[in-house]
Amino acid sequence: MPDEEQHGIRIHLDRILAEQDMTLTELSARVGITVVNLSVLKNGRAKAVRFSTLSRICDVLKCQPGDLITHEPEA
């Protein structure tokens, strides 16, 4: 991916959803964010996330931001 900015940020939304037996569609309805936007976040293609969005996701999933996002520096 030559044109994309490389970073070490990893999103773990798929794992948390699986642990809570929740679909992306259900999370979308409960958080008030489109499935498309959540999918972009889940697949690691988001360039940014608003704190208000992160807060709503954490409220619904009953987790902390660090449960959703980690930094794994590139080798």
UniProtKB/TrEMBL annotation:
GO terms for molecular function: DNA binding. InterPro entries: Cro/C1-type_HTH, Lambda_DNA-bd_dom_sf. Pfam families: HTH_26 (PF13443). Residues 13-68 form the HTH cro/C1-type domain. It comes from the Bacteria. This is Helix-turn-helix transcriptional regulator.
